[in-house]
Amino acid sequence: MMDDRSKLLLKTLVERYIADGQPVGSRTLSKTSGLELSPATIRNVMADLEELGLIASPHTSAGRIPTARGYRVFVDTMLTARPNGSGFEESSIAPLQPDQPKRVIASAANLLSNLSHFVGVVTAPRKVGVFRHIEFLRLGERRVLLILVAPDGDVQNRVLFTAQDYSPSQLLEASNYLNAHYAGLTIDEVRERLQGEVDRLRVEIATLMQAAVQAGSEAASDEAAQVVVSGERNLLEVSDFGNDLGSLRKMFDLFEQKTQLMRLLDGSSRAEGVRIYIGGESGVVPIEDLSVVSAPYEVDGQVVGTLGVIGPTRMAYDRMIQIVDITARMVGQALSQK
């Protein structure tokens, strides 16, 4: 438990450290906290905060810096995200243009990175495998290009290697049959109906339909697993990491593999509003010097994906909350416009 004086000094220390990046000493706190306390009294309070594990003393300085636990107390109990209070103007951002989902999420990742000057991450929208149009094109002997067009205009291409060769007229007949009888159904619904109809369908059509169902399932799975990352190199400019090659290597491995990012963002998609992970507390991103500010985005009232900013624990959390919250709404709006 902390009294009001301790809370104010911790808040002041965190804000000064976020702004300046330098350990904060008792004299600085005495001048900026607004409390009429002597440096000696402030040193005593700082010793208590250090004993609570909220601040720490670097070896090279007499000042103190926040710990991950100190940031957590600050974010949970002392942070107020004021509209435009962090110098961030929503009206200055050009809206994301309605487009294919892949392009929207790529634009959103770039936007997050550019606004935060850190790393922007966005998961692709999760969606049921539904096709609006399907087409088979002959590429060569026993090679067929499958084109799946989703209701939102997204296009997936797959090369099928078939057991027999198909003529262009056979492929056109199969395409027309599928579009006439199965368009608008989910891949699972197509698979279920196909099981009851395969015996009475012509062999070549049934075979192509089964291949299309399998490819459609794989395409939906690939789309759901996609994470777009932008701005990794921004971390090279962060003074907190500049001389720590070990931390930088861990970070770039994280962005390259993306599996851990997917687990983290999947967890965030089940939360309402903006969520903040500080240091290694998520258990998914095991890097003590990184924080993640994330939020789900919705299309037609349904959560379909997650986005966020990854940066140093010494970040302006009020600004990041605004950036993430606004971008989530912009992505939802862009994807909702058919």
Basic shape: elongated
Q: Give me the secondary-structure category.
A: alpha+beta
| Helix residue percentage | 40-55%
**Strand runs, count:** 10
How large is the count of helical segments? 11
Order of helices and strands: HHHEEHHEEEEHHHEHHEEEH
Estimated share of beta-strand residues:
15-25%
Q: Distance between termini? A: 52 Å
Q: How large, in whole angstroms, is the Cα Rg?
A: 26 Å
Low-pLDDT runs: none
Largest sheet: 5 strands, antiparallel
What is the average per-residue confidence, as pLDDT, rounded to a whole number? 81
Largest sheet, spatial ordering of strands: 7-3-10-9-8
Comma- or semicolon-separated keywords:
10 strands, three-stranded antiparallel sheet, elongated
Descriptive overview:
- The protein has 338 residues and is an alpha+beta fold.
- It is 46% helix and 18% strand.
- It contains 11 helices and 10 strands.
- It has helices spanning 4-20, 26-32, 39-51, 68-77, 101-116, 168-181, 187-197, 203-224, 245-257, 259-269, 317-336, and strands spanning 55-56, 65-66, 119-123, 133-140, 143-149, 155-161, 227-230, 275-278, 290-299, 302-312.
- The chain has a 5-stranded antiparallel sheet with strand order 7-3-10-9-8, with helices on both faces. Strands 4-5-6 form a 3-stranded antiparallel sheet. It has a two-stranded antiparallel ribbon with strand order 1-2.
- A hairpin with a 5-residue loop joins strand 5 and strand 6 (155-161).
- The longest helix is centred in the middle third of the chain and has 22 residues, at 203-224.
- The radius of gyration is 26 Å and the shape is elongated.
- The mean pLDDT is 81.
